[in-house]
Amino acid sequence: MNLYKNIKKLVEYGIQTGLTPECERIYTTNLLLDLFHEDSYTDTTIDTNEIILEDVLKALLDEACKRGIIEDSIVYRDLFDTKMMNCLMPRPAQVQKAFWEQYAASPEDATAYYYQFSQNSDYIRRYRVKKDMKWTVDTDYGTLDITINLSKPEKDPKAIAAARNAAASTYPKCQLCMENEGYAGRADHPARENHRIIPITINDSEWGFQYSPYVYYNEHCIVFNGEHTPMKIEHNTFVKLFDFVKQFPHYFLGSNADLPIVGGSILSHDHFQGGHYTFAMAKAPMIEHFHIAGYEDVTAGIVKWPLSVIRLQCPDEKRIIELADHILKTWKEYTDEDAFIFAETNGVPHNTITPIARKRNDLYELDLTLRNNITTEEHPLGVYHPHAHLHHIKKENIGLIEVMGLAVLPARLKGELELLKEYILTGKEIRSNEAIEKHADWVEEFLPKYKEITADNIEEILQQEVGKVFCEVLEDAGVYKYTEEGLAAFRRFLSVL
């Protein structure tokens, strides 16, 4: 029977990857049989050299649909395959023990173990992540990373309807809560039965450490408060960032801003994002240095970057934290009408900061990105937000990941770029197609720059032009533009520190 063969393959996968010890082979087999309401089992021969997890899970999911155990839709398949994977998994305490044993050797060993584990468990679905489109584009500010995110599955209408009709649930409160560990999920909340969180101590309080299931970059991790408490950029934010970097010096850690428009997608739960990756922003040089009275031991400068970034460096992170707090408090109250910087309008605050902490050799380093979320009639989504003529590529908020130089672009662009290739090569009228007419002005603007456009170079041309748009998006998000006038306004702020 194919079911027995695929169950055996899945158990073998667990043993080969170290998720399941050999002594638990029978126990794990029985757990999987129970999921399929199967009372008997006959051992069968399999090829143990060619076990592809995606194929094995697909076959088992097809069987579950055939038996009427689940509905045949991506949402219910994802809920069920997570349940299957949990049958192979060690308990949270065992994972935590292994992590800290590795940490005793080195923090790098601990994160390498945990990152591999998070992939083997299918919490990070490698076969989906590899579908993401990725490329780079060289700009005046450095090499930006571009990605079209294809690893988040689109919900089907049935599941959306089921979620709408289900009784409202507030458990877990959000997808960043500790209560997600082991949660079976539902139509409107992902299953996390195969998820294992590493508890860590940050600023004398309980926090969780995990990886993002969508890994936008290498070892993309999330560090989140053990309590469901809102995001807030304050003195303690800088303490927490460096508390983590001191424990994991090979990782950077940053925070989204704490205001709408310039903040991340989850402002309701205090969390940071980090990882083992060097973004273009971290490679960008300081174009000029400045000194702040009382902090002469801290190196400070303006970074050559499309957003407005102050970089602080010092061997003593406490001095950086003190100065960062001073800069934050000053910025939150700062108004410069000539530069269209308003601390507040009608009592609504506008100024905040996106901070990123890292260790560079013997120095601690903190990048402070100045943000402002003011809106106007001309720019109802934000003056320092992608402007309307760029929305055909990127309309969403510019959060931490984009600030550092990685574009996370919507999945719709994959199909739209394919259509654009066809229309450009055949000379069809782009405005005649509803799906891509929004790109027509953009294409008309860049096409004359290229002498020859062929099937061989069209993809590269489109990718480079998308990258240039992202660079413009970042420039729009900068409160001080990288111009003589913009830098003069930036210096006016620095002069009041």
Topology overview:
Layout: H1 2-17, H2 25-35, H3 53-66, H4 74-86, H5 92-105, H6 107-120, H7 126-129, E1 133-139, E2 142-148, H8 157-165, E3 198-202, E4 205-211, E5 221-225, H9 235-247, E6 252-254, E7 271-275, H10 280-283, E8 286-290, E9 299-303, E10 309-314, H11 317-332, E11 344-345, E12 348-349, E13 351-360, E14 363-372, H12 400-403, E15 406-409, H13 412-426, H14 440-446, H15 458-477, H16 484-495
Parallel strand pairs: 2-15
Antiparallel strand pairs: 1-2, 3-4, 4-5, 5-7, 6-7, 6-13, 8-9, 9-10, 10-14, 11-12, 13-14
Overview of this structure, please?
With 497 residues, the protein is an alpha+beta fold. Helices cover 37% and strands 17% of the residues. It is built from 16 helices and 15 strands. The strands form 3 sheets. It has a 10-stranded antiparallel beta sheet. Strands 1-2-15 form a 3-stranded mixed beta sheet. It starts with a helix and ends with a helix.
Summarize this structure as a short list of keywords or feature phrases.
single chain; 497 residues; alpha+beta; 10-stranded antiparallel β-sheet; 3-stranded mixed β-sheet; 16 helices
How is this structure best summarized?
With 497 residues, the protein is α+β, with helices and mostly antiparallel strands. It is built from 16 helices and 15 strands. Helix 1 packs across helix 2.
